[in-house]
Amino acid sequence: MPPEQALACGRWVKLICGASNQDLASIEDLCGLYALAGVHCIDVAADDAVVAAARRGLRWAREQRPQLSAPWLMLSLSDGEDPHFRKAWFDPSRCPADCPRPCARVCPAGAIPAGSGVTRERCYGCGRCLPACPHGLIEAQSHGLDAAAVPELLARLRPDAVEIHTGLGRGEAFARRLEQVAASGLPLRRLAVSCGLEAGAGAAGAHAGASPSALASELWQRFVLLRRHRFRPLWQLDGRPMSGDVGEGTAHAAVNLLLALRPLAPPGPLQLAGGTNGRSLPLLRQRSGCSQAARRAAAGVAFGGLARRLLSPLVLEAESRGRRLLDEPALWPRALALAQELVSPWLAADG
Questions:
Q1: By CB neighbour count within 10 A (0-12 exposed, 13-18 middle, 19+ buried), where does 333 fall?
Q2: I want to staple 234 with a disulfide (CB 3.0 to 4.6 A). Which of 57, 94, 190, 304 is the partner?
Q3: Contact 194, 170 (CB under 8 A)
Q4: Is the pLDDT of residue 78 over 80?
């Protein structure tokens, strides 16, 4: 199903590779397999090497199924400090010899190998290692694109869509970032706006006194700016950032935020994110009353941490052999089955 049609009928599925994820081998595998599983959009870091890896994965998917409807390629930007745009860092020489390294145990990306610091390209900024360190040695290092670099980068990489991560009180910063996107001259299919009321692990807490109505008011401000530039909006409601692989209970944050925003939000499709997992659709149906009501409530879903974690063991097994998972015919069908199990309920024609 083409992406726009999927948005219109509530069957849209997006893969989030991670705005800070630069693990090229993993990204290539994830993009190929989730494209084959039927996702409509793949969201990656605004980085030349990452985009090249994603496109290699998409080419592989088309080789397996030439009739495949190609998913959009989306690039993530931010208009300010954001947990999605950071990397963990620590000096391993400062770690006590007897430290049990709980940081390594809690890292979902396997970015903290034994006896070492953070593997920068694998870290996607979830922040779970920050409170886990018993000695307070881990810090978060933010990163972002300079304003002058954005138009040329987008014009060079030519994504189908762009997402801007924003927050309450950052309207002026959003307007500046949007001007930079517009200066690229790209005819984007959608301009996604990602925002929520909760902060990620290890980040500052939720906005003091923040409410769904306050968030809706800010989304309306951004809607006016999008209309001015003739961008078509897609509202990504980030329930609990980067937590979908923690447990099924995180689905409540995403669904609660969407249902609270639904009657208040500006025009445009609303998409679940932040804490989404296999429980998200059943919970949305339960809270909405029926399948058709759920379809009207949400245009679709984005899967990030859980989508990556499901395939990680097989990705790593292939990497241990020095090969892509996509080049392992004994492994990739198993990975595809896992991806389809997550994605297929949203694609089902019967809702």
A1: exposed
A2: 190
A3: no
A4: yes
Residue 277, pLDDT > 90, answer yes
Closest CA to 113 of 139, 87, 92, 143: 92
Provide the mean pLDDT of the chain: 94
Place of tokens 């659709």: 281
Q: Is the pTM of this model over 0.85?
A: yes
pLDDT per residue over 13-39, tens digit each? 999 999 999 999 999 999 999 999 999
pLDDT digits (tens, 9 = 90+) for 179-188: 999 999 999 9
Rg (CA), the chain: 19
* Token pair 């002058």: residue: 148
Instruction: Please spell the DSSP secondary structure of 180-244, one letter per residue.
Output: HHHHT----SEEEEEE-SSPPTTS--SPTT--HHHHHHHHHHHHHHHHHTTPPEEEEEESSTT-T
Residue position matching structure tokens 């979830």: 126
